[in-house]
Specification:
about 400 residues; mainly alpha; Growth Hormone, Chain: A; about 0% strand; globular
């Protein structure tokens, strides 16, 4: 008899993974909410601002592969401890010595990528405790750590006004150290841990076409989410003339919308099927992103459209990771790293393209419209593979989960 979600798994690990993921994402995108103040002091142009906020996203994407390998070799808990220590050391150095140039800001962004790589640790840490029929819900809860990006937008600009943006790096160390203690005490590796794989086995995963499809699908959903989260403070500041603090509040509202609905995306995928849920989310995301590219004349209308776009992307994130463990359960560590990397690359593309769009055309219209087109392209791709998925690894004779 199928047990309810709350009767299985390991709740301390699930919520420790969420807390670690949440605060890691908070510092991962920290340069975005601080970008208006940093750019003013360092005299950055729009393209430089776009690249600065996109750098942690790119390095976080690439480091997810590294962390995915460490998850399989060292187990998730130890891999997470290593990543947390590196991020804490980088922020401590930035706080004590300061950031005095564009190059130093980029260097800090590179080290903050280790925080973004928390994705490749937190999801396998939680996933391995849960059976297939509860994967969407479990990974939706752990993945709701995306909400940390909202914490950065909500508090970082105001703290920068009060104490100076350089001191925000030091203040961020307080919650990070608390998260480190909670993670160390409560998180546990699941007893059903796959054996470590050789390099050839990792490369073998890339020979599977489904791995590339999942990477593309997540590059749109998560890439759209994190790319927007990194850029929205600049967007609301440039588009509507909001000061950094109020632009941060607007950004926080949008990111909360995208983060808090991620578990519902996973839950909906568990009940209706991941393919059906993801297809609907691509349609909605494309509509709202294209609407935003046309331009909203008032700040409240712009806020409403961005909230809807972020909600669609957030639910899409949950739907993708309802499907991944069904197809690659034994390779979930490396697949989380690969798929997460692709999501980060999508976020880097969106954040940097918005900066270049602003630099070259004076508006964000082109960057937003192109990404809306990518959402529709992902929908076409999903339509091509859905029949094969439902009749092979997603067949009722293979899994009880709805595909």
């Amino acid at each position: 008899m199928q047990k309810s979600f709350w009767e299985v798994g390991h709740k301390p690990t699930l919520f420790s993974a969420f807390f670690y993921f949440d605060l890691s994402f908070m510092v991962w995108v920290m340069l975005g909410p601080l970008a208006v103040q940093i750019a003013a002091d360092l005299q950055l142009n729009p393209a430089q601002k776009g690249l600065m906020v996109a750098t942690p996203v790119l390095t976080g994407a690439l480091l997810r592969i590294v962390m995915g390998v460490l998850v399989d070799q060292l187990k998730p808990k130890k891999a997470g401890l290593i990543g947390q220590v590196i991020v804490i050391a980088a922020l401590l150095t930035a706080w004590l010595h300061g950031i005095h140039s564009y190059q130093q800001a980029l260097l800090l962004g590179m080290f903050l990528g280790f925080a973004g790589a928390a994705f490749a640790v937190a999801l396998p840490l939680a996933s391995r405790w849960y059976p297939p029929e509860h994967q969407g819900t479990a990974l939706g809860i752990a993945g709701a750590g995306n909400s940390g990006t909202a914490l950065a937008a909500l508090f970082a600009p105001g703290l920068a006004v009060a104490f100076g943006w350089s001191n925000v790096f030091g203040l961020a160390l307080i919650p990070l150290l608390i998260a480190l203690v909670v993670y160390t005490v409560f998180a546990k590796d699941a007893p059903d841990t796959p054996a470590a794989k050789s390099l050839s086995q990792y490369l073998a995963v890339l020979k599977d076409h489904d791995a590339w499809w999942f990477m593309f699908f997540y590059s749109v959903t998560f890439g759209g989410f994190v790319g927007m989260a990194s850029s929205l403070t600049l967007y609301f500041h440039d588009q509507y003339g909001l000061d950094p603090v109020h632009a941060g509040y607007f950004t926080a509202a949008c990111v909360f919308a995208g983060s808090l609905v991620r578990p519902f995306g996973g839950l909906l995928a568990d009940r209706m099927g991941g393919i059906r849920t993801l297809s609907a989310m691509y349609v909605l995301a494309a509509i709202f992103l294209f609407t935003l590219s046309v331009g909203m004349h008032t700040q409240l209308a712009g806020l409403a459209v961005v909230v809807l776009a972020m909600a669609a992307l957030g639910m899409g994130n949950g739907a993708v990771f309802q499907l991944v463990p069904q197809r690659f359960r034994r390779e979930i560590g490396v697949m989380t790293g690969l798929v997460g990397m692709a999501g980060g690359v999508g976020g880097f593309y969106l954040a940097s393209s918005l900066g270049y769009s602003k630099q070259l055309t004076g508006s964000y219209q082109v960057g937003l419209a192109v990404f809306a087109g990518l959402a529709m392209l992902a929908l076409v791709g999903l339509s091509r593979v859905k029949h094969r998925w439902r009749t092979t690894w997603g067949a009722a004779s293979v899994t009880r989960a709805k595909i």
